[in-house]
Write a structure and sequence with these properties.
The chain has one domain. It is built from 10 helices and no strands.
């Protein structure tokens, strides 16, 4: 009896570019649920910029401490980067964990010609798409609030996207090692929230005590915020400093992707 060979993976199309099948699956899911997420994506910047930028900003007469710009202009890029961090971390936690344990989505994928590499790259592509949507909506709202005045403000968009992706892919690598979701709330409480508060989002790190100011330089969100703010405001465009900030963010993406390949493979391939 002649054995029938399994069908070979299709040539061309999505298999020519690893990860596109996984990206397609994420887009199909998002097409069904985007209405539930878009409301929060739109309301969040409106509330933050109204409460913190406009209301609180009216009580901050000293603009010298914020680079000579109104507090709203100083705040908006920081909030955009911080929101990107939060969104990326969320996308790399519970939704991804559901694919591993509750829905078994990745077990189904790995039973097809799709490889672990395709799954990781597809998830990475999805992080870029998701963060582009979130930060894009934020930029439109902030522009309508008058928070972006520099001609270079559009360069802050890819910077914020990279910041969110850096956190998202690192969190994804961690999620692939987890058997339960209990560590996620701990990470948000003791990592994400302190970064949100003390990485230069709401005030320059120069206002921190000297004994702890240097710690901010070792927090990844600070580099994302500093890069996004410099490009959005058009101040402090020193190429060396910007290069350092960019290198930290890109380094996080590279390291997170490297470990994601390992942890996803260990989780999915027996």
């Amino acid at each position: 009896m002649t054995a029938i060979a399994p069908p070979a993976p299709a040539r061309g199309g999505a298999f020519k570019f690893p990860g596109l099948r996984k990206l397609e699956q994420s887009l199909l899911v998002y097409r069904r649920v985007w209405r539930g997420t878009f409301f929060g994506t739109l309301v969040s910047p409106v509330l933050f910029l109204t409460a913190m930028g406009v209301a609180l900003g009216s009580l901050v007469p000293n603009i010298t401490a914020f680079g000579g710009v109104p507090y709203l202009v100083f705040l908006a890029p920081g909030i955009m980067s911080a929101q990107a961090m939060q969104t990326g971390t969320v996308e790399g936690s519970w939704p991804l964990f559901a694919g591993f344990k509750w829905l078994k989505t990745f077990d189904a994928m790995i039973a097809t010609p799709i490889t672990v590499r395709d799954i990781v790259l597809g998830h990475l592509y999805w992080l870029f798409v998701r963060l582009a949507i979130v930060t894009g909506v934020f930029m439109v709202v902030a522009f309508l609030f008058g928070a972006f005045r520099s001609p270079t403000f559009f360069l802050a968009w890819p910077s914020a996207i990279l910041t969110g992706v850096a956190f998202g892919i690192c969190m994804s690598a961690w999620t692939a090692t987890r058997k339960t979701e209990q560590s996620f709330s701990i990470i948000f409480r003791f990592v994400v929230t302190p970064l949100f508060l003390f990485s230069g989002t709401f005030f320059p790190i120069e206002q921190l005590p000297e004994t702890v100011r240097w710690i901010a330089w070792f927090t990844p969100l600070f580099h994302g915020v500093a890069l996004t703010r410099s490009l959005a405001i058009g101040h402090d465009l020193d190429l060396l400093t910007l290069g350092i900030h960019l290198a930290v963010v890109l380094g996080m993406i590279a390291i997170g992707t490297f470990f994601a390949f390992k942890t996803f493979k260990k989780r999915l391939v027996i």
